[in-house]
Amino acid sequence: MPNWTKDQQSAIDKENSNIIVSAGAGSGKTAVLTARVIRKRKDGVDVNKLLVLTFTNEAANEMKNRIRSAIQKEESLKKQLDYIDSAYITTFDSYALSIVKKYHYLLNLSKNISIVDSSIINIKKKEFIEEIFEELYNKEDE
Question: Are 30 and 63 in contact (CB under 8 A)?
Fold first, then answer.
């Protein structure tokens, strides 16, 4: 068992509230969240009843892999392996997208919605700016 800092241990043990773990790269966020998930599981909470959000797909995959590895080491938790792939251990944007797709009809949105890549956003932004400048350039001076 690692030697956790006071703040890390608090993040692992805190109950009856949501938590945000915010720290720099390499500070142990993934290890702390993994330890929290395992502790919650030992307290009777199924993995697929938790919501664990990260900013990148890489971090979400790392989190799932670490949780999977930790569960495999504990014989009493092995049934949870069935739940890992359906658990909400994902990115903020992927989770938000799943909510929008699920409740699109309440939001009056198409269910055919997806996350746009930043390169497409940049291209569209340039197109809009060019359109605006072209329109203004072609406008007669008053």
Answer: yes
